[in-house]
Amino acid sequence: SETENFMAGIKIGRMTLGVCATNCYFLYREGASEAVLIDPADRGADLYEGLKRKGFFVTAILLTHGHFDHIGGAEQLRRLSGAKLYAPLEEKALCMDPYANLSLQFGSKTVVEADQWLSDGQKLTLAGIDFLVISTPGHTAGSTCYYVEEAKILLSGDTLFAGSVGRTDFPTGSMGKLVRSVKEKLFVLPDGTKVYPGHGEYTTIGEEKEYNPYCQ
């Protein structure tokens, strides 16, 4: 029945794509075929086909920020899947500017317009999963993390990494803001929260609170 299905556990899968080895995550409820894809880095058609082969249909796409290596596959994936694309409102300028989002420097011209622009504290229910939008400016002006309280999962984009944080020497970046975002917005989450970053391996909030050299 639907209720039982809704209560099934939340699963997360990962594919690593593109020149920057960007992590694309997909979240779904156990036993369900709807998936939410976070940061379609590159080759949207491959993402679409790969998930379809696993039996998944992408019903929503979430962007953590507008850099080329996180949005490269967005348009193609949206077109093929019919999924709605969600992105942070503060990141609109970057999403629409191929110079600022670094795509021009890497030989393509990528811009992306969201179906819905998101703001801090907003709650979304996608594929039967509740996401909390947490604005974490620093890596870029509109960088955003998504928290799934039920599963204690944080999708941290390029804000927080295992033992590190995102670089801030690109347009709209600020190290001061980034450290403040991490301490005030992310380190208040439960220590057991699993952090799935845009690059590298996953970590936990507790681990980063204790050992991350950038946020002591």
Describe the structure.
The protein has helices at 2-7, 44-53, 68-71, 74-81, 92-95, 175-186, 205-211, and strands at residues 10-17, 22-29, 34-38, 57-62, 84-88, 116-118, 123-126, 129-135, 144-148, 153-157, 160-161, 164-165, 194-197, 203-204. It is an alpha/beta fold and 216 residues long. The strands form 3 sheets. It has a 6-stranded mixed sheet with strand order 1-2-3-4-5-6. Helix 2 (44-53) packs across helix 4 (74-81).
How would you sum up this structure in a few lines?
The chain is of the alpha/beta class. The protein has seven helices and 14 strands.
List its salient traits.
alpha/beta; six-stranded mixed beta sheet; disordered N terminus; 7 helices; 216 residues
